[in-house]
Specification:
heterodimer, A: Four Helix Bundle (Hemerythrin (Met), subunit A), 70% helix, B: 156 residues, 6 helices, 0% strand
Chain lengths: 174, 156
């Protein structure tokens, strides 16, 4: 059952990632990213990282993707063609950087492959004892990692103020 | 833990199955004779005008940014909420654990409330109100004359 789920969600992540790569419509690519991120979240669950999976779902699927789609909608120049009202709204990718894209992808793949092959997994062959990590995380967060936790709060505050300031004051006409 | 997520997995399966079953059944049952009116975009009864592909107001983006920041805050609240009211921990520390955890989280949330207050005070959350366009007519008749007419024929 777990293996079926693993291969199913891996297939979901890989197929939607390939779809992002192959589609020319930017909006479809964003929706494909949604499926890929959900697949990766499920893989986190199967690897025993439940908190990471929840974070992935809440922040990436729920938040970053909305920002991405808003970003697409914000940066669109108005369609000036005379038949703009009747033509379909496809947001197409017009320019390709095939050489550099493939180069970066191959190099990144090589780095990941090397990391996996060179890594010495101590837990390999062990049975995964799947217990929820959230209680441990909560106790650690409130005791030994209290200062980093509050500093994270200040970091979030700085990010909030900075992001809101930059987004609003770049565009005086808004 | 995996069995807990099994419930969520069942939810995902049920959602996919239900939606595809509903849409598939509707597709099999419904008659299909479209016309111009049926195929036009639904805009609450208005005639759709122009292209929908327009540049968005940047305020939507700012609201989304603030949402993401508070999303991250929510992630931190999660493990805290699990251990905050834990009876074992409270008994082991003579009741200090609960107050300590509450105080720490109040500080954390308070820091972020500062950010929200900043965005609010700076007006980043204000929406642009559409200004009502009052029709203006260049008429040689002064408005006081209309007023007199109104007074004259006023029903007493």
């Amino acid at each position: 059952m777990e293996q079926v789920a693993f291969y199913g969600f891996s297939a979901l992540a890989i197929i939607s990632a390939l779809f992002i790569l192959l589609t020319r419509n930017l909006m479809y690519a964003a929706f494909g990213l949604f499926l890929a991120l959900v697949g990766v979240a499920a893989l986190y669950v199967l690897a025993g990282a439940d908190f990471l999976a929840i974070t992935q779902l809440l922040v990436y699927v729920g938040g970053i993707l909305v920002l991405l789609i808003f970003g697409i909608m914000l940066t669109r120049p108005a369609d000036e063609r005379p038949d703009a009202a009747t033509r379909p709204n496809r947001i197409e990718v017009v320019n390709h950087r095939r050489f550099w894209g493939i180069l970066v992808a191959v190099v990144l793949f090589g780095v990941f492959l090397y990391t996996i092959l060179a890594a010495n997994f101590t837990l390999i062959g062990d049975v995964l004892i799947s217990r929820s990590t959230i209680r441990t995380l909560g106790v650690e967060l409130m005791t030994s990692h209290l200062l980093p936790f509050e500093i994270a709060g200040i970091l979030l505050l700085v990010a909030l103020i900075g992001a809101a300031y930059l987004a609003m004051n770049r565009n005086p006409s808004a | 833990m995996l069995s807990d997520f099994g419930t969520i997995f069942l939810f995902i399966l049920a959602a996919v199955a239900l939606v595809s079953m509903m849409l598939g059944m509707a597709r099999l049952l419904r008659p299909n004779n479209p016309n111009e009116e049926k195929l036009s975009t639904y805009e609450s009864g208005e005639e759709p005008l122009g292209n929908a592909n327009v540049q968005f107001n940047v305020r939507f983006y700012v609201v989304a940014l603030i949402f993401v920041l508070f999303d991250v805050e929510l992630i931190f609240l999660f493990p805290w909420a699990v251990v905050f009211g834990n009876e074992d921990l409270i008994q082991q520390t003579n009741g200090q654990w609960g107050w300590f955890a509450l105080a720490e989280m109040t500080v954390f949330v308070g820091i972020l409330v500062l950010g929200l207050a900043y965005a609010w005070a700076k007006g980043y959350l204000d929406w642009v109100r559409p200004e009502p366009k009052t029709p203006h007519v260049d008429s040689p008749v002064p408005t006081s004359l209309y007023q007199q007419v109104n007074e004259k024929y006023k029903k007493s």
